[in-house]
Amino acid sequence: MCGGQAGIAPLKAALGLLYTRAMIGRWLILACTVASTLVPARAQWVHYPSTGIPKLPDGSPNLNAPAPRSADGTPDLSGIWVDENNRPCPPNNCDDMLTSQEFWDLGWSLKSGVPYQPWAAALIKQRAAAFGQDDPTAHCLPGGVTKMHADPLFRKIVQTPGLMIILNERNATYRQIFTDGRPLPQDPQPSFNGYSTGKWEGDTLVVKTSGFRDGTWLDRKGSPLTEAGIITERFHRVNVGRLEIDITIDDPKAYTGPWTVKLTQTLKVDTELLDYICLENEKDGPHFVRK
User: Fold this and answer.
1) Is residue 149's pLDDT more than 90?
2) Is the pLDDT of residue 180 over 50?
3) Rounded to whole angstroms, what are the CA distances from 217 to 105, 128, 149, 238?
4) How far, in Å, CA of 69 to CA of 203, rounded?
5) Could you give the residue ranges of the DSSP H alpha helices within 36-156?
6) Residue 247 near residue 109 (C-beta atoms within 8 A)
7) Strand ranges (DSSP E) for the chain?
């Protein structure tokens, strides 16, 4: 089992738990690493110490220490992050993976609900009736900005002068956020992640993204984003271990007005990214059957 992913496929459900293989894969790698402690060289850096992390007297990471800063004085958002665990485990759904509320429903925290246009509200019901079979990520396509923030797999932020890069374990994908002062492109070729530019407002990085492909899903529920949509993110590193991202969706074609949610990310230390390639050993697609 430690030699590949052949033992993973029987453990995942065909629909709704499509991310299970990746999380099982991470635990298998951890288990195999422990089992092979007699071997001097390890294949993955799953236990390699992170550098630059403040320590408590007992040697554990001080995640409440002040946020680090870059050479230019702005907060440094770099690190490996994962969405907070804010969703209770439903029956038979958390044996191998924890997902946030926002993964399933990005706007779950809005007291008045997401302001869907009538056609979008009807589309949500259709997608629920079809068990989300048209979710792009269910067919191994990129998930887009919001789904990558809420994905249970890890992501790494690399902050450099003029550019911030987000690397995702899922399909080994990337996203570029330019902070060099360039404007958003006019009439760009639509893309899964859109085109992003950012600027600092105090200690908050404000990022605007446009140029999305029509038919984007914002969450597993199927909240739509059209080609007219603009996403604004406000990144604020509260301390070493906590990153808050306010996300505003402005898409007049799909919603009656803009709406904003807050995602909280937690820092993962002493580990590294592990590739999860959706099509590797993929066996779910043939079982998608419409009634």
Assistant:
1) yes
2) yes
3) 11, 13, 13, 29
4) 10
5) 101-104, 118-129, 145-150
6) no
7) 79-83, 155-160, 163-168, 173-178, 195-201, 204-210, 216-217, 224-225, 230-239, 242-250, 259-267
Residue type, 111: K
For the chain, what's the residue count?
A: 291
User: Helices in 75-206 by DSSP H: which ranges?
Assistant: 101-104, 118-129, 145-150
pLDDT value of residue 188: 93
- What pLDDT was estimated at residue 287? 73
CA neighbor of 207 nearest in space, from 64, 65, 77: 77
Whether 227 and 190 have beta carbons less than 8 Å apart is answered as yes
pLDDT value for 244 = 98
Q: Which helix (H) or strand (E) holds 25?
A: helix 20-35
Topology of domain 1-291 in CATH is Lipocalin (2.40.128)
C-alpha–C-alpha distance, residues 52 and 67, integer Å: 11
Please, which pLDDT band fits residue 60 given cuts at 50, 70 and 90?
very high
SS3 158: strand
| Mean pLDDT confidence for 114-130 | 97
> Is the distance from CB of 290 to CB of 133 less than 8 angstroms?
yes
- The answer to whether residue 94 scores a pLDDT higher than 90 is no
